[in-house]
Amino acid sequence: MHESFLAYRKFLYLKLGVGLIVLSIGAYALHEPPHGPNGGTWLGYTLGTIGAGLILWLLFYGIRKRQYHSKLGQVSGWLSGHVYLGSALLVVATLHCGFKFGWNVHTLSYVLMIMVIVSGAYGIFTYVRYPTLLTDNKGGMAIDAMLSEIGDLDRQCLQIAAEMGDKAHQMILRSIERTSFGTTSWRDALGGVSKGLEDLGREIKSIAGDAEPPAPLPAAIPQIGGEATVFFVADQLAGFRDSARAALGHRLLDLITSKKALVIRVQRDIVYRKLLKSWLSLHLPLSIALLAALTVHVVTVFFYW
Length: 305
Hints:
Layout: H1 8-30, H2 42-64, H3 75-96, H4 105-138, H5 143-164, H6 166-177, H7 186-189, H8 194-208, H9 226-237, H10 243-278, H11 280-304
Helix pairs in contact: 1-3, 2-3, 3-4, 4-10, 4-11, 5-6, 5-10, 8-9, 9-10
């Protein structure tokens, strides 16, 4: 049975983290220095040393997870410790400074530490949430298979559109060229601007031999998404008198709808993967900044105070 890194060895690091918090709070409550709690007392130095040691150990995780043949414990164990001892660090560091803050490098170190912890907490959220969403979104289908099927659907759309006429073929070709897997809306990906829809509707009715003018284009079409595109084209198809042409049009609608569903799944896959990685672009620089600020903090304490 797979064991989550959060539950590593029956929550070993959770117990260690809670134990460290309890001991720190207990010592802080019993400690009564004449000038009040601060980082310059024996307890302040003790908690500061523990906190600095924890920060260095937590930073080493970034190295350990890339050492694939290391014998320094399992990566899942390091990650579990990273989570729970990193959370305990917030209490240790707060008690170390005795809740005294100011406009100095010492408080800067504390603020950077909080930012690192918060960004790390978001990282935990992404690792717990998004892998499941990725799996559900794929539905047992690899991303390469989705892209391959989208390509097949594009080819089928082009074949059907070619039978419906050159203009319809060009419209579908343009929609394929505009298909986006980024943040572009499906309406834009289909090239579904109002004039394009109107032209396509007119072309469909022209092919069907219907002399009646196409239905007026709703004003809201340019602002809404793929469902409006599909329903609008379906409305044009409703006037077909040639059953063979109507069958082609409905088949084209089915293919467009299938492609839309696949494109949305690919877009979601890309978004989930970006969210899984993007938090590191904040967490890592903040961690490096914390190390620099911590170094200055320690140097100023021992050599200038």
